[in-house]
Amino acid sequence: MSAAGGPGAGSIAGAGAGVLGLTGASDQIDFARLRAERRRRLFDAMAAGGVDVLVLGRPANVAYASGAQQLWTAGTRPFGPACLVVRSTGRVHLLSTWDAGVPPEIGHDELFGLSWNPAILASNLGAIAGLGDAAQVGTDGFSPGARQLLAALCPHAAVVDAAPVLSRARTPKTPDELACIVSAAGIAEAALSALVAALDPGVSERQLLGVYAEAIAGLGAPTPPTEAVVCATPRQGPVRLRRLATDRCLAPGELVVLNPGAFYAGYEGTLARTWVVGAMVPSPAQRRLAQRSRETLQAVLDACRAGTTGAELCRVWDSTGEAPPPEPFVRGVGLGAELPLIGHRVGQSAQLAAGTVLAVTAWVAVDGVGGVLEQDLVLVTDGEPARLTRYGRGPLA
Amino acid sequence: MGEVGSLIAGAPIPAAPDLVRMRRDRGEKLQHQLGAAGLDGLVLMGTSAVAYATGAVAPAVDSSHAVLDRTVAIVVSGAPAAHLFTAHPEGAPSELPTEFVHGPLYPELDEGVTTIKRALDELFEPGARLGCDELTHAMLRGLPDREFTSAAAVLGAAKLCKTPDELACIRAAQRINELAMWDVQAMLRPGLRQTDLTARFLRRVFELGATTNAIDPIWQVMPTMRAGGPWTTHGDIAFPLATGDRLLREGDVIWVDSGITYQGYASDFGRTWIVGADPAPSARQQAQFDRWAAVVEAVLERCQPGTTALELGQTAIAANEGVKPWIEHFYLAHGVGTDSAEMPLIGTDLGASFDERLILQPGMVFVLEPVIWDDGAAGYRAEDIVAITDDGWVPLSAHPYDPFVGAW
User: Fold this and answer.
1) Domain map of chain B by residue range?
2) Residue of A nearest to B211 (CA)
3) CB contact (8 A) between residue A214 and residue B202
């Protein structure tokens, strides 16, 4: 195990890049190179999978294929064609009424505008060369309406799951992508500092959510991976991990979970620590809980190696003696949340690949004491896993 | 101003929503529409559809998280409530019986679909007529014997007219949004970045009680002339552009657009601001605002049950001297509810025949967002929300137009 900047992650170019981009310094990420590499990987994966056209609707996939800046909205979006990748022409077509935020490699003739009318949309898409005679069309979502649209646009095509192609391209991260993830981790760590500074007794979970949102936006990264950022746990009674912020006010001496994330150029960074509210010395029981959480986290982090399966990671968790956590405890991170998703109920057969970035989370709780949640990002390599997030444990150190 | 009525099917909009009653009414509407469509049930996976069907709240997440950690609703014809599958049971409505609250499904994954199949087999006969809003490839693989039709008609019909409690939720969401904007506008000075405005806004909306933020707030610096803006497919204005860390400068005209949620219901705030300590619109800018106000006033005069959407669009065009006062790719007005833009839409490329069939009814909500563009004056755009009542309309938004001086 090594920290970012140490030997395991020493090859991550640009990990010291600035966030604001005002200086034009040479250590910044080369985004043109990043996009070109993604595009090459995507077309290679399509060739390998025998997929002629990708019809993508999910913002993360659209971002991967096009590099375009999209307006962020919370939650799922109904499936619809927002980006078409055509292997025979080598072109990427994008749903965008304007060229602002669209990278220069996508020309005006590759943009199609927003429409509310399915007939107009079908007519716009029908003009795309290489779609009508496609034999294999991969989509990243589906709906009853999509079946009709695709049957009209590519009548001879078999509609297949785009996930294998997308996963092949997206899962192993390039050095530029890793640099983006590390930059995002830096923003998340800054938000964690802002949260720690605001942990006065009497502050509410919702107020802390406001502190978090203000912190990331103030750094120029205004959209959250998730608003599930703060959870206070009581010193009396049952302890549960809640992900929805409430107006509950924090009492001195309580343990509070702080789990901020951030995006940099679309890539996610996230981490979690648990803090004691107010200027209180943690109780011996709280210290023991933190120790157990740390050992569990470390055990799972150490096991995040190429080839390890989800079932094996669950056994590692179980070997610590802790109860299975309520959520998946190992998750892929890249352009937001990615597979694998590994927990005791899901992802048993998933196998870790070198170049994957994972968010590893440990949660331990004791009724009458509180709960401790800790999370770090780790890069899976062929050798030692490399931790990408860094933050102390404060009073629970 | 037109006549202002305040009753929806004889009932007033309460000062605070009765959430239990609201969810019960929605459940009854969904059941009624299921029956009308001849469906045995619904499988819903879209964030806003699940919120509507179950009343559950969940933390806002990026779309990449939302698809892996979906909340799912299964509605069974004749059942007293919708089944909720969630990782966040703390967001389930208090009155929802525990047998309707289940652990999360993972419809993206083949193993998750095994669980969905079990749930469907328990709740429905083979061959049951089911509607859905979305499907995953894992579901297509794992549920070969189930056929799904679109749930859009059922959901759309249920959502079209709001109950007074739903209107109270929209009004509450809008109030939070507007209060936060007072603080943001007060800080508007040269040298701030767009994201600095976002920072202030988000901090305030959560302090004021927002359940979630729904959209990255927009503070688009408008070009003075159309030709100075980004290239567009249709030659009209580009809007809304995503926010960045652009520095704001004295006299910049910014179009503001934001939306938060309260108990699942979205707000929609739109105004035009001018950057500066004491900004004063030019005569042409003020004239644009006056025209915008005249368009809204003319439209409101016609806002009552029985009017068609086409008539509202024509009224708006007539009030703007024959020029369509909205952006080519948008609309004169859209609805708002558990989605930030939902039916009814007025003036889209769905066309005149669509608008003609859309007849105003009590409980419909319109976010009126005309755009007045006098090329060279950076345009004026604002959004106001009204609900159609039994005999007219009632406002759901209430925010000044500073630095523009109101005509009313």
Assistant:
1) 40-150, 164-395
2) A245
3) yes
* B217: chain A residues, CB-CB within 8 Å: 222
Q: CB contact, 8 Å: A64 with chain B?
A: no
Burial of A310 (0-12, 13-18, 19+ CB in 10 A): buried
Q: Which CATH class is domain B164-395?
A: alpha beta
Q: Which of B134, B136, B137 has the CB atom closest to A78's CB atom?
A: B134
Residues 182-221 of B with CB under 8 A from A: 193, 195-196, 198-200, 202-207, 209, 212-218
Nearest to B269 by CA among B278, B256, B282: B256
- Contact A337/B207, CB-based, under 8 Å? no
- Domain A175-396 classification at class level: alpha beta
With contacts defined as CB-CB under 8 Å, which chain A residues touch B91?
244
Report the topology of domain B40-150. Creatine Amidinohydrolase; Chain A, domain 1 (3.40.350)
Model pLDDT, residue B407: 54
A&B contacts, CB < 8 Å: 242
> What averages of pLDDT result for each successive group of 10 residues across chain B (408 residues)?
69 96 98 98 97 96 97 97 96 97 96 96 97 97 96 97 98 98 97 97 98 98 95 96 94 98 97 95 97 98 98 98 96 96 96 97 98 98 98 96 81
Q: Where are the domains of chain A?
A: 52-161, 175-396
Which one of A62, A71, A93, A116 would you mutate to disrupt binding with B, by most B Cβ within 10 Å of its Cβ? A116
**Domain A52-161, classified CATH 1.10.3810, yes or no:** no
Q: What is the pLDDT of residues A119-144, one digit of tens each?
A: 999 999 999 999 999 999 999 999 99
